[in-house]
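note to self: the first set is below, dont mix up w the second
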Amino acid sequence: MDDTPQRVICLSVSAGAGHNQAAQAVLAGLKLARPELPTEFIDVMGKVPGWFRAFYTGGYNVVVTHLPSWYGFGYRLFDRPHTPQRGLSERVRMCYERFEMRHLRSYLLSQRPAVVLCTHFLPIPMVGRMIGRGVQGLRLMGVVTDNEAHRWWYGENVERYFVPNDQVKSSMGRWNIDPQRITVSGIPVHPKWTAPLDRARIYADWQLPADRPIVMLSGGTFFTVGPTVQIARGILDRTNACVVVLAGRNKQLQADLASFPEAWGGSGDAASAASSSATGASCPLPRLKIVPFTDKVHELAEVSTVMVTKAGGLTTSECIAKGVAMILTKSVPGQEEANARMLEAEGAAIRAEEVDAIIAAVTELLADPAKVASLRANARRLYHPGTQIIVDEVLRTM
């Protein structure tokens, strides 16, 4: 009799941040529901040869950042066939990927988890093949992390897919996946995004002005949203808002923004700032807040009026969970474009691509409280408790 304790392994790939965040969200939910349940997070890139890792994640970063139109072309080119049958190029690709993931396969065989939950498509065909070849007691689930299911999400022997909405569920019918095996869960976000927070404490802890609208600008994580410095400068010049820039690990961006007088409480008028300093007048709270990498973005979102961001699946899902109005910058063709289209169509976001258009959209939105309220209400309407739905299903399966 096998007395190995049941465990859940979440597989993801560090190509962008969203897939890993989705995995960590589900693991956090499992920890809350069943603290004693053994769980493990595995970035697949840690189980493949270094050259494959450089090619897969490095190539993705380069193409998305510098050659987005090429990425969009490839995204559509490989989004086929629209049938359950595998094409020749698919079979060749999957054979090659299985070989490079052989160490991951060996590790899974040694651990024998009860459930493998994939928040990235790369390992799904390999794990499905293990099940098809007779590995007992292994159940495979996939979590689609954007508002469109690319062909690469398709895999055999997937016991359950979790998808963002009914449209994605319907589109997966082209692969003859049984609808009963597809759950509309929404994209999972970390439980901290839905936990109640003390807004007064947030204003105090982050030294934010409670009497101004807060505009959060995402500009320094894996990829910049564009000319972040110019966007921040324009919003500061044309509104009375406090601008919070998520600068991540982008040291150059942090340095550029630190030169703004608004970053240290100035009004933008150097002479008046110098006068206030000379007379000993109290310095007002900064209108520009530069935030390096942090795991507390949910606190900033709690008090934000609007967020300017790319249309990443996880970032926009976090905004939906908080009911934050969104202005979406230029999207990379592919899954980001699909996210942006859906959010705009649902009235939860405004799309603006060029710097002037982004600044104008922020200015107009802050002057129209009714529009802000509408965007927030539509965002909340789209919310699904994805993490809880997935956790409940995993535990039922086990």
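second set (the one i keep forgetting abt)
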Amino acid sequence: MLEPVMYEGGVYKHNQIIELVEDLGGYIIQKNVMQTDVVLLMLVPLNDMDIVEEKARELLGKLTRAPLTGTEIATVAPTLAYHHLPHLDCDVAEFLRKKGAKTNMVGLARGVGKRICQLSAYERDLINEHDLAVFILGNYEHCIIEKSKRLYEGIEVPIVVTGAPELKLEDVPNATAYVGSFGRILHHMRHSEELRTLDKLADVIGKVLDNVRQEIAKDPPSVAPPRIKKEIEEQIPEIIDSLHPLPITLQMNGARVKLPYEEYHEKLENIQFVEGMSMKDVAQVLPSKMRNFVLIRARPKSETGFVI
């Protein structure tokens, strides 16, 4: 298994830890350089973590586990109108990005009202393309409970719900986890107690994603998502010219490729691996509900009979 970790340290000699992780069979997901500091999001083989930790200490850097690394999360608001305070949605989305996730904000067309709220088929399919959905709800306990009975119909990914009251999970139907102390906050979350609430949300999401990883490990994908990213970067040169943030967005069982589906799906399907098979042998190449991007879903081992 690959362990998601974050390295924080100086720019000086940071290439040594990049080379070490790649030599061990791991992957560098993202690299951010800020003046004299560097932040690396990495996937490291679990059995080799001691070696990477030793190198981090040698470089006077800090290595921390980052379970949100390599995931794509939908932050869902009932609407994007000021009534539902997108300030809070932006704070949640940005904080999860700092923890290593790629977030997309989804504002529902008909999410208003505890009796009439609903998802459209397009919204449901779009949310299901992510690894996890965070529904950011309001202050009223009854409203949160009633919306939970129908707002999540058809969503197959784990659902984390936030709201103002402190509720037990069994009080929120169809949710995977619930985090209180959010609600309708009239300002950006900057105070210490608010930042602690965001930390709690990130911890809860991390535990949910770890459970998903354990389930995936029971029937692992035929090709690791970071391997998909690496092969696309090497064999599809047009991805380098993409101006989208994270042109290849990793997910737990695949990737979202920000290239036009009609033009590139055949090229992606015909990507060759050194083991002798092509992308279409180990993954499905599908049209995404997000713009006209490409969604790649790795086939499980039980379907192909092998892992490369």
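remember for set 2: Residues 225-304 form one domain.
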